[in-house]
Amino acid sequence: MSLEREVELEYRPRLLGALQDKVNAVADSLRDQTPACSRCGQPMKRHDTETVSWIARFGRLHASVTRYRCPECKDERRPLLDYPGVEPGRISGSLARLLALLAVVAPYTLAAQLAWLLLGVKINPMSVWKVVQRLGEPAARYSEGMSQYHADSRSEGASTREAPPAVVVSVDGSMLGMQVRQQRRRRTGAEPLPPLPPVEEGQFQEVKTGVLLLPGERVEISPGRHSVVRRFLVSCLGNAADIFRHLYAQLRELGWVGPHTVVVIVGDGAEWIWNRVSMFVRRCEILDFWHALEHAWGVARLLYGEQSRQADRWVHGIAADLRAGKVLEVIARLQRMRPRTPELREKLQGLIAYYSEHAGRMRYDEYLRLGYGIGSGAVESAHKQVVHARFRQAGMRWSEAGARRLLALRLLLLNDNWALPDRLPMVSVA
Ligand SMILES: [Zn+2]
Q: How far is it, in rounded angstroms, from Cα 40 to Cα 159?
């Protein structure tokens, strides 16, 4: 066995002992303090004292916890358990945050396994799930609260004195498989859970993700490959209005939109994006370049066959012209084509309609010159990182609340804001 492991095993009981001493000291200091009722302010009455135990990182802690009650309001408090890091429940607040962190990265069963391997804590997946609910709920409320705050025109955003000349906002969406039943399946004894019924049509809900970045901070890490110094992710399980409300709040929180800032919006053809962007007065709308080409590929394959060199050349010709800002020439050329089959005619008409509708968002030469970029690659990779990597693994099904809470926590980690859960009190959830 390695020395490190040896020391860890040797000191673990001592760490537990030291932690238990601290808990005892807190319990002693609270012994003679009668808490006031949070509703009426009157001193509460000692109700009873019971021995409570909970799991911490180094093992199980015990304490006799006094419960106080307000005779008027029937409110109850157990001051020792309100103490930071203790909190009611079977897992210490500090361990709960570590477990939540594991669950933000890995599925619940794997997170429980990691807890054992990394922390030496034996825990079942259900307990990890519970911790995420109790910590995810305040995280979700926090982000919702921030969005509501900024939605009020009277509330103050961060200073915009250093607002950039342009900020890029790209948005994307994808579907999550939702649970068919409202109730969670209950395990009886050691029996395995019955399999879930297959997901039916309509039992999906869209998760929308937005990425905020400053074009000035984009650096070319190798020819043609770009990376950004900073990016902020915003994600929600909701409609178009919700994601734009969250994006707007995040922009105000960052102080990124000043009176002269151009908000550059990059998106695919999805209407919900373009219907909302008018909220930004100074804006530049860009149709994602790769989506524009994807549509051209649809025609090229019908015209020249799969994987033909001609199809390749044809699409590259269109790409070069689009990059040069010649979208109207491209449309005119497409209109001069004489399709031989009804299928091709239909596809071609579709492409012409798509380019005509978005022509004003396809001035790629200008966007490149201004340094705005022309693709939504940043949001697609971010979206995969936020959603696919954790929420769309084989057979995963989510409850609305479960997905919302885990999403809120995952965003905190990906936005490098994991310190926040330390400041959020855990809540009890049904
Ligand atoms: Zn009271």
A: 39
